[in-house]
Amino acid sequence: MAQNFRNYLTRNTGASPVDILPEASVDSYDAVIGIRLVNIHASTDIEVDVYIVRSATNYYLIKSAPIPVGGSLELIDGGSKIVLHDNDKIVAVSDTASSLDAVVSYIDAIST
Question: What is the CATH number of the domain that holds 89?
Fold first, then answer.
């Protein structure tokens, strides 16, 4: 079976939660293979939360993680993966307005 590699990009995330990976496909599982968060603010260090939402419950991947000005944070590395169930989504929020870009790389529909 061929693998469907995808990415999802979000820009200028701030103090309101934003889906950095909208809901996973119905009746399948997806594998997240990378999440990179970048502080794009010109002069302020930021703190970010990233979590999975499943059935209206938040499951944190990281909470209050600091990212310095011009810095980035790689949440998944060393071959790690996160499996998402159908209808899961990943959300990010920063403590500073318009300060966070995110890139999520994933494999769509790894199994049913």
Answer: 2.60.120.340
Strand partners, 74: 36
The structural domain count of the chain equals 1
pLDDT in tens, 60-81: 999 999 999 999 999 987 778 9
- Asked if the model's pLDDT at residue 1 lies above 60, the reply is no
Residues found in the chain:
112
Q: What angle do CA 12, 48, 18 make, to 5 degrees?
A: 50
Q: pTM score, two decimals?
A: 0.90
Beta carbons within 10 angstroms of residue 68's beta carbon: 11
Report the distance separating Cα 7 and Cα 27, nearest Å. Answer: 20
**How many DSSP H helices and E strands does the chain contain?**
0, 9
Could you list the residue range(s) of the whole structural domain that residue 34 is in? 4-111
User: CA 61, CA 92: separation in Å to the nearest integer?
Assistant: 10
Give the type of residue at 94: S
Residues with Cβ within 8 Å of 1's Cβ and at least 6 positions away in sequence, in order, are none
